[in-house]
Design goal:
Length: 134
Amino acid sequence: MNLEGILSISGKPGLYKLVSQAKNTLIVEGLTDFKRLPLYASHQVSALEDIGVYTYDDTVSLSDVFSAISKKENGGATISHKVSKKELYDWLREVLPDFDEDRVYQSDIKKLVQWYNALHAAGLVEFKIEKDGN
């Protein structure tokens, strides 16, 4: 799954797509409402392609995690971020069995679920059907 140009902005709900770049400004567009807004150096911005989930061995990129979620959900949306803590952790264990439970918090899993569902709603979730060699 390609997450290039998809951004999360601290203090603003939802995900944004990078549209344009100027000397001191980024122009982004909301994935769901398509509203454009400028971002300045004072905004805290995270590119989804740079984020990963801790496992006991290494860090798994967010695109790989989203691909695993898509495979688990057969390309559909996933659970709500409003379910209980136990349900969130059980769900992530199904998706990524070796995630580091000491370093991945409930708020991280909620954000992961929200981001996946936002990408799914925007039609950016790629579901690849694996074919047998037969």
